[in-house]
Specification:
Layout (H helix, E strand, L loop, with lengths): L6 E5 L9 H10 L6 E5 L5 H7 L6 E4 L16 H6 L4 E4 L2 H6 L4 H13 L3 E6 L3 H5 L3 H12 L10 E4 L13 H19 L8 E4 L4 H8 L6 E4 L6 H9 L5
Helix pairs in contact: 1-10, 5-7, 7-8, 9-10
The structure holds 1,3-dihydroxyacetonephosphate.
1,3-dihydroxyacetonephosphate binds next to strand 8.
Length: about 250
């Protein structure tokens, strides 16, 4: 099976107001037209305005979470259908900041993945070990366990992406060694093949955690690294575009 088209996605987290749309437009103006998929995942408040600002262009819009149910009495929550209605085509699910800060376990993430599929959104499902787990030699067991628990069988044949984001590398400036990144990505690929057979070769596996213009090209060139999920460095168009430029093209 041919390698998946790389995806470089910017996760703005809880950052950005209307004036930040200028950064999104600058990304759209310079993003490559082919060979790599580029996405921005702003806070929910900016989904509709960003999708209007970038309409007709190459840059895809993603959300950062969704509720499992399509509608109902869930004050403050947003359904996958609502995200699609606002212009999203992707949704990040199971980010460690949601797993740790909002008590989301693998089963909760899997139910959100089902919701994304129901609404026609492509899920980006995040997994990653804590520092303690890595130091205890448990990184591979934790990550592959999260993949098995967070990815429902309904993903078979659907478009989706897995993002490996070691918790200790997020926002810290720390990254695993290149060998460690490859080892985890290969373990994720083997798990996907075990779960989905031949189809497990199709999804891109992204790396996330302190990806910057200075380290992106060497990480993105690694075997089984199919793109990046970028936090802080995605807030400035110049930095994000430099990371996109470091991606090998499909
Ligand atoms: P940083 O790039 O800021 O380390 O964040 C990574 C991340 O959590 C993306 O989802």
């Amino acid at each position: 099976m041919s390698a998946p088209t790389p995806l470089i996605a910017g996760n703005w987290k809880m950052n950005g107001t209307a004036e930040s749309l200028a950064q999104a437009s600058a990304v759209a103006a310079a993003a490559p037209a082919a060979g790599v998929r580029v996405a921005l995942c702003p806070p929910a408040t900016l989904l509709a305005s960003m999708s209007r600002a970038l309409a007709g262009g190459q840059v895809m819009i993603g959300a950062q979470d969704c509720h499992p149910e399509p509608s109902g009495a869930f004050t403050g929550d947003i359904s996958a259908e609502m995200l699609a209605d606002a212009g999203a085509s992707l949704v990040i699910l199971g980010h460690s900041e949601r797993r740790a800060g909002h008590g989301e376990d693998d089963a909760a993430v899997a139910s959100k993945v089902q919701a994304a599929l129901r609404a026609g959104l492509e899920p980006i499902i995040c997994v990653g070990e804590t520092r303690q787990e890595r130091e205890a030699g448990q990184a591979l067991a934790v990550v592959t366990g999260q993949v098995r628990g967070s990815l429902p069988a309904a993903l078979a044949g659907k478009a989706f992406t897995v993002a490996y984001e070691p918790v200790w590398a997020i926002g810290t400036g720390l990254t695993p060694t290149l060998e460690d990144i490859v080892e985890v990505h290969q373990a994720i690929r083997a798990t996907l093949r075990d779960m989905f057979g031949e189809g497990g070769g199709a999804p891109a596996i992204l790396y996330g955690g302190s990806v910057k213009p200075g380290n992106a090209a060497e990480i993105l060139a690694l075997p089984e690294v199919g793109g990046a999920l970028v936090g802080g460095a995605s807030l400035k168009a110049e930095d994000f575009l430099a990371i996109v430029a470091g991606s090998p093209k499909a």
